[in-house]
Design goal:
Number of helices: 9
Pfam families: LemA
Number of strands: 0
Order of helices and strands: HHHHHHHHH
Shape: rod-shaped
Family: Belongs to the LemA family.
Helix content: 55-70%
Membrane topology: Single-pass membrane protein
CATH architecture of one domain: Up-down Bundle
Strand content: under 5%
CATH class of one domain: Mainly Alpha
Keywords: Membrane, Transmembrane, Transmembrane helix
Largest sheet: none
Distance between the termini: 147 Å
Protein name: LemA family protein
């Protein structure tokens, strides 16, 4: 009986310790999320303070870009108006404001004098540093939110989360089209840059460019010269008489027609060759 009581007390103590540990961990994660969000909020306020000075500097050199300045001012006011809202709503307002700032920076490229202005360069550098700190704080905040939401959904920590009303936190994700866009690769462009052209398409049975396909007279339709038909010696002559003329042609010697002549295919008579039926010229 005493052992049973001791076992029950030990189980209750272990469960109480696990409950307290899990609850304290939820509280710690929730406070960490709130602290990381306050760091983001500080950088966002710093950006709100830099935007009016940046707009006034740009306006002095590009006064006719009025619609861009008005859009930036309107979106800045809209972002400041949702400071107490959920992170999802803040993210939407910040995405619109970032797009307007990017459009204003694109219009600045048409004014070389503005790009060399020291005041503008200082404001641009401070704005870039602020954007980098906002991005770093956003990554840290979203990582903490991911761990916290995972524990809320996992078992058995979800029992404690449901019992003590721990709710899931929202992510702060700014949609940046320039970062998420996929680069387009064109092999034709790469070849043009490298000074090379793409090889033409060669279909089956067609010779490639730069190669000469040999053609034999009378056998243009045959692709394999070895498959040409073999003919015997004319007029029933001995095969040696036929090949003697071919060997002479290969050695650079003149080839005479078949004797007893006048057969078609022989070379014409000349001053160095006798007519058919006449003795050769001896000089």
């Amino acid at each position: 009986m005493v052992v049973t009581v001791i076992v029950i007390v030990a189980v209750v103590v272990i469960l109480a310790i696990a409950l307290i540990t899990s609850y304290n961990r939820f509280v710690k994660q929730r406070n960490l999320i709130q602290e990381s969000w306050r760091q983001i909020d500080v950088e966002l306020h710093r950006r709100y303070d830099l935007i009016p000075n940046l707009v006034e500097t740009v306006r002095a050199f590009a006064a006719h870009e009025r619609h861009v300045f008005e859009e930036v001012a309107r979106l800045r006011t809209q972002a400041q108006g949702v400071q107490g809202a959920a992170p999802e709503q803040r993210a939407q307002a910040e995405t619109a404001l970032s797009g307007a700032l990017r459009q204003m920076m694109i219009s600045v490229e048409a004014y070389p004098q503005l790009q060399s202005n020291q005041n503008f360069l200082n404001l641009q550098r401070e704005l870039t540093d602020t954007e980098d700190r906002i991005a770093a704080g956003r990554r840290f905040y979203n990582a903490n939110v991911g761990d916290y939401n995972t524990r809320i959904e996992a078992f058995p920590s979800n029992l404690i989360a449901n019992g003590f009303k721990f709710e899931k936190a929202g992510y702060f994700e700014v949609e940046d089209a320039a970062v998420r866009s996929v680069p387009q690769v064109s092999f034709g462009t790469i070849g043009a840059v490298a000074g090379e052209s793409a090889p033409p398409h060669v279909g089956p049975g067609q010779p490639s460019s730069g190669q000469v396909q040999p053609q034999m007279p009378g056998y243009e339709g045959q692709q394999n010269p070895q498959a040409l038909p073999s003919y015997g010696p004319p007029n029933g002559g001995h095969p040696q008489q036929q090949y003697s003329g071919q060997q002479g042609q290969q050695q650079g010697q003149p080839s005479y027609g078949p004797p007893n002549g006048g057969q078609a295919g022989g070379p014409p008579a000349g001053p160095d060759r006798p007519q058919d039926g006449q003795p050769p010229f001896t000089g």
